[in-house]
Specification:
Nucleotidyltransferase, domain 5, 4 domains, five-stranded mixed sheet, three-stranded antiparallel sheet, General transcription factor II-I repeat domain-containing protein 2-like, RNaseH-like_sf
Length: about 375
């Protein structure tokens, strides 16, 4: 039996924390620091149903048009996007937060560091103070600190992942593409791409996940990583009809490779068999390596190295191109590991072939050097 003190303490605790989870979606609110916070206007009201109900009916009754599943989705958007109105927010109330998200998205798309946010805000305040001084307090509310930008990006990433999961659940047919490569830290990164169609034949193609593999990269390791990714994203393997990989043994081996293990899973689960195809990019790599192109590449690489490997030659070459008013100001290096750039670099070399020839004659021969080209 509970003592009188323990019973009164429990009653007090029950009275102090009466928040009901059913209120959250009904009144678009959440519990925050012992009170109820409205997700629409960010105001706090006492922890009572009557207070939040009166606040909602007096100020936000227009949101009653959201019912059923649409209301659930709208409520989840308010929570996942930093508790702001993603599409219904007004510029006067939540405009500063909306601008913060928009600038964070631009910074990510432009590959800019998050520390640029403070500099961008300084530029905005400088422009606002000169052009629209009456609106300067609104611009001062825009938060673009490094932590804020990181939080904004995390919120948008979570929302994008949620939307992708919802799309995957509507797919009727799915194809996957896998590619494993090593980054600068010698950590294997497994990229998983997905393409799916729904019942209306709308095609969605997205990067499903990038999985770091710090240990071995055997067929079993890749298989387990993809299985965990599928469980996390809610992928139904019975809808998968095609898988594209490179030609590595850990991918294509019929027994120990990823394809072999996946076929065993399909046979065990009694799914329809899938088509295993070779990645198109890697097919191009195989064709490029099989072509007898050395008589062209050797001359090309030797000329480029002659111009770029010596500082004096490089400086004079750029000055020569500038004096000739060429369309390009320099010629890029070529490395075997970046084989996809072969066509671009050869095209640049071909456009500058006369200028390169004249440069070699005018400068290299003038220095009494003999080069076999």
């Amino acid at each position: 039996m509970l003592s009188a003190g323990e019973s009164s303490a429990q009653n007090l605790k029950r009275k102090m924390n009466p928040f009901n989870v059913e209120w959250a979606e009904k009144y678009l609110c959440q519990e925050s620091s012992g009170s109820i916070q409205c997700l629409l206007c960010k105001k706090h009201v006492p922890m009572k149903k009557y207070n939040i109900q009166r606040h909602y009916e007096a100020q936000h009754d227009e949101y009653d048009r959201y019912t059923g599943e649409s209301r659930t989705n709208f409520f989840m958007n308010l929570k996942s996007l930093g508790n702001i109105k993603a599409q219904e927010c007004s510029v006067d109330s939540n405009g500063a937060i909306y601008v913060s998200y928009a600038i964070a998205l631009k910074m990510v798309l432009g590959n800019h560091p998050f520390s640029y946010g403070d500099f961008i805000k300084e530029c905005i305040l400088e422009a606002a103070g000169t052009l629209t001084k009456e609106h300067l307090p609104k611009y001062q509310k825009i938060c673009l600190s490094r932590r804020t930008i990181a939080q904004r990006v995390q919120d948008m990433a979570s929302d994008s992942e949620r939307q992708l999961k919802n799309r995957i659940s509507t797919f009727t047919s799915v194809s996957l593409a896998l590619d494993e490569s090593t980054d600068v830290n010698d950590i294997a990164q497994l990229a998983v791409f997905i393409r799916g169609t729904d019942i209306d034949f709308n095609i969605t193609e997205e990067l499903l996940d990038i999985i770091p593999m710090k240990g071995t990269t055997t067929g079993e390791d890749i298989f387990n990583a993809v299985m965990n990714c599928a469980v996390d994203k809610g992928l139904d393997w019975s809808k998968v009809h095609s898988v594209a990989t490179d030609g590595a043994k850990s991918m294509t081996d019929h027994k120990s490779g990823f394809i072999g293990r996946l076929r065993s899973k399909f046979s065990l689960e009694k799914y329809n068999d899938f088509i295993a195809v070779h990645c198109l990019v890697h097919q191009q790599a195989l064709c490029a390596k099989s072509l007898a192109f050395a008589h062209v590449m050797d001359v090309f690489v030797k000329c480029v190295n002659l111009v770029r490997s010596h500082d004096l030659n490089h400086r004079q070459f750029k000055e020569f191109l500038e004096s000739m008013e060429c369309d390009y100001g320099d010629i890029p290096y070529y490395t075997e590991t970046r084989w996809l750039s072969r066509g671009k670099t050869l095209s640049r070399f071909y456009d500058l072939r006369l200028s390169i020839s004249n440069f070699l004659v005018m400068f290299c021969v003038h220095r009494k050097r003999i080069y076999i080209i």
